[in-house]
Amino acid sequence: MGALGRLALGRPTREFAPRAKPRPLRVRYALPLLAPDALSSVAYAPDEILLTLAAAGLVGMSLSPWVGLAIAAVMAVVIASYRQTIREYPEGGGDYTVAKQNLGLAAGGLVGGAAMVDSLLTVAVSVSCGAQYFASIIPPLESHPKTVAVGLVAVIMLASLRGLKVLDNLVILAVYAFIAALAVTALVGGIEVAAGRLGPSPAEGLEVVPGRDFEHGLTVLAGAFLALRAFSSGAVALAGVQTISTGVQRFCDPKPRNAARSLAVLGTACAALLLGTLWLGSQVGAVIVADPARQLRYPSGAPVPADFHQDPLWAQIAQAVFAGARPLSVIVIGLVGLLLILAASSAFRWVPALMSMLAEDEFLPKQFYRRSDRRVAAHGIVTLGVGSSALIMVMGASVTRLIQLYIVGVFASFTISQLGMTRHWNAKLPLAKTAAERRRMLVSRAVNALGLALTAVALVIVVITKFTHGAWISLGLVGGAFWIMRLIRRHYRRVAAQLALPKGDRRDLGLPSRVHVIVLVSAMNRATARALAYARATRPSTLEALSVAVDMARVWELRRAWDRADVPVTLRILDSPRRDITRPLVDHIMALRRRSPRDMVVLYIPEKVVRHWWERWLHNRSAARLTSRLRHLRGVVVATVPWQLGPSEEPK
Amino acid sequence: MGALGRLALGRPTREFAPRAKPRPLRVRYALPLLAPDALSSVAYAPDEILLTLAAAGLVGMSLSPWVGLAIAAVMAVVIASYRQTIREYPEGGGDYTVAKQNLGLAAGGLVGGAAMVDSLLTVAVSVSCGAQYFASIIPPLESHPKTVAVGLVAVIMLASLRGLKVLDNLVILAVYAFIAALAVTALVGGIEVAAGRLGPSPAEGLEVVPGRDFEHGLTVLAGAFLALRAFSSGAVALAGVQTISTGVQRFCDPKPRNAARSLAVLGTACAALLLGTLWLGSQVGAVIVADPARQLRYPSGAPVPADFHQDPLWAQIAQAVFAGARPLSVIVIGLVGLLLILAASSAFRWVPALMSMLAEDEFLPKQFYRRSDRRVAAHGIVTLGVGSSALIMVMGASVTRLIQLYIVGVFASFTISQLGMTRHWNAKLPLAKTAAERRRMLVSRAVNALGLALTAVALVIVVITKFTHGAWISLGLVGGAFWIMRLIRRHYRRVAAQLALPKGDRRDLGLPSRVHVIVLVSAMNRATARALAYARATRPSTLEALSVAVDMARVWELRRAWDRADVPVTLRILDSPRRDITRPLVDHIMALRRRSPRDMVVLYIPEKVVRHWWERWLHNRSAARLTSRLRHLRGVVVATVPWQLGPSEEPK
């Protein structure tokens, strides 16, 4: 089977994240595998720029190239900064590690919380946008955006739970196909523009009604604020560029160099894609507004119908460029939609890794540390699926509204991470051995400081312009996640302090004086016989069999069976006036403990092990309650002696 | 505090069913406590008779006294039969015991399943009907019957979960008040009739449109079938008379005699109530139809409005009798509603008792046997609340539709129980010592045989006339309940057979050759130290400490701490390439077992006992998974050594 076959099909595997460390990949595979996050955000950012500017009508939309250039400039600086992060943190912890190591664990926790919330929003935004693209080629989907989006999330979630390795190969293929399709579209579009034969977009000729604030044209102040708002929406294009810095270990050697190069390539592609999209969009006369029914008008002055469907930008571009060849435009639109879905699925892949990292620092329950454990990973995956579905439902699958939430977390992480890198260089600078090394560090620090300045400014703009549009929700979510994580960590710290062995204090290692063994008996049967034999085998100081009298007839039956079986252990019956099993036993054991507090008590409980889940309701319920009650007594050990029930009645 | 105060207030108690056997009560308290089931069904039966007959217009409704008399006759026979049951089964098992002891366990199971389904329907019917009565005095409730009914179920369920003893006293008071109110109403109504001054019912003057089948009057055949249908609906009046036979033990000595007398009193009251209601209803010109919008017409010929509210029968009667004194009618209607609600609440009281009885015969999970256990009883109560709410929602809180389901189960139980009693006399007859005794038995058998004949005929009528109206649903539910109960019993039987100690076979009692003890270690702390000390105290043949290497840094830390603590036990580290804890340990223990299959292995696991439920997610997860895996290995005992985490950091 050739490389292509392996790419397309993968190996038939049902194993889930089999190794703690995945196999390193060549750049041509690793780069596209980590690219969907960054590429997908560039797919929807231009729409947001245009629809924000459209508030000022077509005049406003003409500002879009300048906004695009500003975003591309910030992107260049951020990419340069992250290349440094990759070189300094080749183990690939990303923003979390940078923040933790340079700014302290609390900053790390904040970045971790933001990353958790961002993962929800990545899925919600990508899938909602993907649903829009699919709806523009399959019109019946138009009227049910929420259902389609939640359905897609469910499909991705199930695929992730299965741990389908074939997804990786699909991602690599889809990224190349996406790049190729968009490049071909741009090329054909460019030729058509040069030949003056570019077909009109479906939106061609529609007029954009300026909002009330812009009815009398653009003032400088209003225009500047509008441009800032468009910038802060479009800045979502930067989301996902940090993914490569978390995945350095997926590259083959030399890992940091390959990763840094890949990031440069990816950044260039993203910037080209962003600017190219805005240019092509203006060439085809694409129109994107927030509220088509109110903002769009036919040249005749009539408003568009209430159920007017507005295609997303790349759908409009592809339809214009391939006006005469609908199948081609369907392919392009389908690939954009597919890439968006795969970007969502990649969040499902990195969330378990993120949770494992947070669990290592005790920000999350310890079990999440073992991310190769299928059941543990499943918790994270299901939480992500359910949480993002909830966001989609609450926000009505509206990409624009979801992005208002998304962008805050993205830039908060950027800013903290850049601050961390700046401090990293400050701390490292005195360690420089040569002047050349020192010079390089100074340059690096300057890059990160510039990155910090730009992302901080962007963050301020985002928070100011978006606060009432939903930024407060994501700030609340991040704060909530951080608070819970701190609570968990504090709990673990407190437990560790309580459990610390005092130096030189060997009290806890001192042996109890005597061992009292009690065997819990409800009937005389083989399971009880085994428990009795095992209890006797440990040769305890005292041994007694205990039964609680719930029903006199049964007590007599038990006594007879006991005598018949000729067990060399005395059977003691505890009275229970209220048919309760737990209370008399606990009282008995507590009395025993009080008489000899330095001894230990071991309670042997015969347990029937059933084969089907529903059978669990039929057995061991009293034992389970007793166990959970006895846990709170000091010096009492509960030993369960299992008896495996077979499928048939054959003796074993 | 006097008797009245105790009646009204009860003792302040938070205890739940504190004794397995409740205190016996004098007849004046026991009878009303057990009466609501029977009385409530007589409260809604006349409505059903009238609305069935109304299909033939006012002509049809004139048949109602005859139908009422037929039901009263059946009731007399059934009451006589149950008085025999009470005398023969004074321990009070009711239909279930009668069926089980005379017809075999399968018949008992069938009766038990029917009783479970009937409990759901008692609650659904009583509460839906109670909601109607409340709606007729609080008009805003009219338009939300389902919400009101489900809300009432929730209130009753919560009160039952709290185990409010004061409910008992409320029931006793309410029954006397109900009887008094209805007697006064009947008396005043009778005087008004005699004086010719009876006020008109709100429905007075409305015309009833006969259904299409009866447009041209009543043929004999159609009339007979209609009367049969009315009989089978009205026969619901018999529901609940068997309650006293299950509660014989609640009466003071001589229990059977007091209970049998009480039943006679109750039966007389029910029959009087049924006939009196029908008579008063016809006197006031009350009109009850299934579908007011289609079946009712003003004298002018105009149909009633679509939102016409039809009051239930006693509401119409009370309003007519107390036409000039609305507060009095409100009190009467309110008391009828209250009695219905209390009848529902009594089902919540006897369902745990029923489940306990079924659990004793292994038809239900064993834990239900201990019905004084609050948490066990809660399962039954919540199931009943949720199930009856579901029925109410599905059936739209329609009393008529719910009764179609209810009546089948009621008569199925009656018939099986009467069959059982007839066989009981057949078996007992040869044991008669004197001719007088024999004669008494023959009379008794004749009574039960007559009861069997009548209830069997009624059952056939019910199934035939109601099958498509919903009887099939309740037959399905009863069948399903019976099937599940049989499954459970079969499982217990099979387990018992597997566990039976073979006679003379002392293999299971033979001691294992050696005891290998393993202590599971994840970190060196006080909890681990205690587990080590306890494990050493049992002086095993071999002892080792085991840790699974998930992370090299932690392994080195553990080794250092181990050496520092100077523990006289060797620490063994198991490698885990996949960061999985369970697999390496299970493999290790299985290897040990294979080397020496006649030995036993005890795994000591230090367990952190937390104080809050949410903290459980933060600890012992790996141990829990390991334990559930090890359960399936023979000869492996898991002993958990608890360490109680304190609220603060103080050492203890």
Describe the structure.
- The structure is a homodimer of 652-residue chains.
- With 652 residues, the first copy, chain A, is of the alpha/beta class.
- The first copy, chain A, folds into 2 domains: 17-492, Up-down Bundle (Amino acid/polyamine transporter I); 510-644, Rossmann fold (3-Layer(aba) Sandwich).
- Helix content of chain A is 63%, strand content 6%.
- Chain A contains 23 helices and 7 strands.
- Chain A has helices at 3-9, 27-34, 36-53, 57-61, 64-88, 95-103, 105-137, 145-162, 166-195, 220-234, 243-246, 255-284, 292-295, 313-321, 326-360, 374-394, 399-428, 435-466, 471-499, 526-537, 552-565, 582-595, 621-630; strands spanning 207-208, 296-297, 515-520, 542-549, 571-575, 600-609, 636-644.
- Chain A has a 5-stranded parallel sheet, with helices on both faces.
- Chain A starts with a helix and ends in an 8-residue tail after the last strand.
- The interface between A and B is large, with 86 and 86 residues.
CATH architecture of the largest domain in chain A: Up-down Bundle
What's the number of structural domains of chain A? 2
* Average residue-wise pLDDT of chain A: 86
Cα shape of chain A? elongated
Oligomeric state of the chains in view: homodimer
- How large is the count of helical segments of chain A? 23
Low-pLDDT regions of chain A? 1-20, 648-652
C-alpha-based Rg of chain A, rounded: 33 Å
Let me know the number of strands of chain A.
7
CATH homologous superfamily placement of the largest domain in chain A: Amino acid/polyamine transporter I
Query: Can you tell me the CATH class of the largest domain in chain A?
Result: Mainly Alpha
* Strand line-up of the largest beta sheet of chain A: 5-4-3-6-7
CATH fold title of the largest domain in chain A: Amino acid/polyamine transporter I
Estimate percent helicity of chain A: 55-70%
Order of helices and strands of chain A: HHHHHHHHHEHHHHEHHHHHHEHEHEHEHE
Structural class label of chain A = alpha/beta
Which pair has the most extensive contact? A-B, 86 and 86 residues
